[in-house]
Amino acid sequence: MRNTLILLLLALALGAWVYFYEIKGGEKRAGEKAIEEKIFDLEVDSIQTVRINNVFDDFEFRKTTSGWQMTKPLETAADKNNLEQLLNSLRAAKKERSFTVAADNLRDFGLAETALRLQLETAGGTIRNLLIGDKASIGSSVYLSTGDTMVAMVEQSLKTAARKSLFEWRDKTILKFDRERLQEIKLDNRHGALRLAHENNNWRITSPQAADADDDVVNALLTRLENNTVKAYVRETVGELNTFGLDKPSIRLEMFSGEEKARTSLSTGKLNGADVFAMDEARPVIFTIDTALFNDLDQTFFQFREKSVLNFPTERITSLSLDFENLHIKLAKDTSGTWFTGDSAEARSWKVSGILSALRMLEARRFIDETPLRPEKYGFNRPSGRVQAGDSQSVQIDIEFGNRLDTEIYLFERINNRMVTISAEKLKDIFPGLDEILEEKRTDN
After folding, report:
1. Helix boundaries (H) for 340-402
2. In b/e form, how buried is each residue of 207-225, taking b as 16+ CB within 10 angstroms?
3. Nearest residue to 115 (alpha-carbon basis) of 99, 131, 139, 92
4. Cα separation, 311 vs 316, whole angstroms
């Protein structure tokens, strides 16, 4: 019993030692080690001002409610990503090794006249200085000093993050706009004037004539405006616009956001090699953009227009009638999803689904927008084909086919009373042979 008690006490003592020395003590030592490895004693998130002196220039950045702003060598918005990269590098920087040298020997490590100088200041006025010197002869470290004779070695990524030019440090956003609140777009280019309005989560063309817009095309343009960046800043003051072709813009884009219709605008001028001169009226600078964005802005009314001919819920279609040349068939779908003809011949359901899919994917090659519309001019007094489809309550599809025109055929959509042309190649998908539609008849042996 006594031996057991002694063993129990020893176990408790050992457990206490492990807990207080190894676990709690380990946490304390890890914390002390982390403090020793830090290159300065400021919380990065508390930094309000950053000053950099590198091979390019002297820079100053201040944090504001609207983000980081450059205040030297010029006043403009700063590049958010590059500032965040620098702050993240400061946050992650650790001393890999440190040693003391004589003050006269600091230049041997690039920590004298040629050093990259970094000054960090908090809102309370606390300032810390960092000097970043040469790359170490071994590994991927650089030498760093806080202004005394103690030299530390840190990851080279910190110097890379701080060694940037004016162009890299400044914001390169082409046009600032609030996409979520965007209400209206005005676009004037060589093809004419186009007006779009955002209604019920969809884009509509309101001028030169009312039509549904192709949301994919509009959203692709907005995404490119958001993601593309200025290629180069050409002039910090507007000056004479005719030098850049901006006195008579080749393209003018205006966007209006929110109930107050806050306006932003972009104008483009002459080509400049592979780029195009441009300006944003909110900033007195001239810059260049790439031709891909220019081409997205230089689209026609037709390109912005929704080109889908039919829009119907495929799953609701329970009847289908096809008439074209030698094909005349009426199909109905039963409650099990199987398609039959009027005389109970079973159709291949996958083939009927393919026909409905082909109808949904029809796109207009051209819109016949004449007023008044005269269908008989295009062969609709004697249609070459017709498709009708619907459910038990309504007709969802009612289209006729008219004359052919080279590789196109006229299509009249009776429900919405509009006429377009489509590729004549699509006819083979809409009107397959009867033997392709019907299941083979089973024969009893």
Report:
1. 349-360
2. eeeebebbeebbeebbebb
3. 131
4. 12
- SS3 label, residue 247: coil
369: Cα separation from own chain's centroid: 34
SS3 35: helix
Asked if 399 and 413 touch (Cβ cutoff 8 Å), the reply is yes
Total Cβ atoms within 10 A of residue 389: 23
Residue 285, token pair as written in the block: 């600078």
Sign for the CA dihedral angle at 280, 283, 288, 290 comes to negative
Residue 98 pairs with which residues in a beta bridge? 152
Region of 379 on the Ramachandran plot (φ > 0 left; ψ -120 to 50 alpha; else beta): left
Q: Is 20 left (phi over 0), alpha (psi -120 to 50) or beta?
A: alpha
DSSP H helices, 201-327, are 215-227, 291-297, 301-304
Q: Which residues contact 382 (CB under 8 A, 6 or more apart)?
A: none
pLDDT tens column, 129-182: 999 999 998 888 999 998 888 999 999 999 999 999 999 999 999 999 999 999
Q: Which pLDDT tens digit goes with each residue over 355-382? A: 999 999 999 999 998 888 888 899 999 9
